[in-house]
Amino acid sequence: MLYSANYEHRNKVLQKILIPLCFFICAAVISLHLPASTALASSVKVNPEQQHPAPTTPGQVQVYDITQQKLVLRVPNSVPIQQQAAAWLKSIQGVAPQINIPKCGSLIRVPLAQPYQISLTALHFTIQDVFLIYCPREKPLLLVFSPEHKPYLFTFSAPVKPFLEMLHQ
Question: pTM (2 decimals)?
Fold first, then answer.
């Protein structure tokens, strides 16, 4: 009972904090001019380990500066970027204990070439995008949204430095 109450409180706080970021996400989706069929793809369950990489990659990687509260960089999506995002997702350790997103650094949206199934003890859902929250002073986090638009923050163990270097080439 206590776990459930804390979990619900955490979700409410996350939703309040993420409202400004939702504007970013909406703008990103609109700017990509996604076809209507893309929204239906989120209900498809695909195991990425059983699939071959897609020959093309969706949309652009977008870097949102948290301090400046604006989009600062767009980078073409690529197979190496998709591989980095897949490594993060495969190395998820669990739900992050913190409620707040760091007030520094960047929020980086990576559209996924194929839907990815999140499967943890009590969580099972499919995502189309992953957001890297990177602040140099803190451990990076992953932000994903369930099909019901609930935000989840995850800790993970894969390195982010190779990805950050790709962005600035």
Answer: 0.70
